[in-house]
Each structure stands twice: as C-alpha cells, then as structure tokens.
Amino acid sequence: MEQKTLYAEFTVKEGSEARVAEMMNELAQKVREEPGNILFLPYVREERPREYFVFEIYADEQAFQEHITADYGAVFNGELAEHIEGDASELTWLRPVE
C-alpha cells in the first residue's frame, strides 16, 4: 500500500503562540502513538514563529483515515480554529519523486 504524506501549514493569531505550542506538543505525542503514523514533525518558521509547518507520513490510506477520525484530533482542530488566521490548515499532499 502507498504511504500518505502531507504537509500542513497555518499561521497563529498574535497572542495565541503559547497556547498553540502547548496544543501542538500534546497532539504530537498522541499522533506519534498511532500505529499507522510513521512521522509527525511540527515546526515553526525561525524568522516568523507564528507560521507552523507540520510534515506527516502515515503507513497508508487506512492509517490516515484512523488519524483524522481520532477524537483528540477533532478536539485539537476545534480549538485550533479559534487561534489561527483563516478557516483551517492548508494541506499539501506529497508523493516521492519517481
């Protein structure tokens, strides 16, 4: 089966930096425990620390579906929406160079 690889990005509203960092650390711990998660790496842009980038790899489509339907993910996304610019994270799907 083909791995699912994506890059998510969002910008945190001014004043929400500490809360989002805390939320992201909590989420990362949970996602990394998912059996189908291969990699979950959140970063902030060094010169603009309100800009987040998350690189994620899942074993396959089923693993990704289990990830996006996890209860804690819904809680995270619900609260995150209050703290970011725009409606949601922007997702970019990636595939290996052939």
Automatic annotation (TrEMBL):
SUPFAM superfamilies hit by this protein: Dimeric alpha+beta barrel (SSF54909)
Alphabetized InterPro entries for the sequence: ABM_dom, AI-2_Isomerase_LsrG, Dimeric_a/b-barrel
Molecular function GO terms recorded: monooxygenase activity
Annotated Pfam families: ABM
Domain (ABM): residue spans on this chain: 4-98
The entry's keywords: Monooxygenase, Oxidoreductase
Protein name per Swiss-Prot or TrEMBL: Antibiotic biosynthesis monooxygenase
Originating species: Glutamicibacter mishrai
Lineage: Bacteria, Bacillati, Actinomycetota, Actinomycetes, Micrococcales
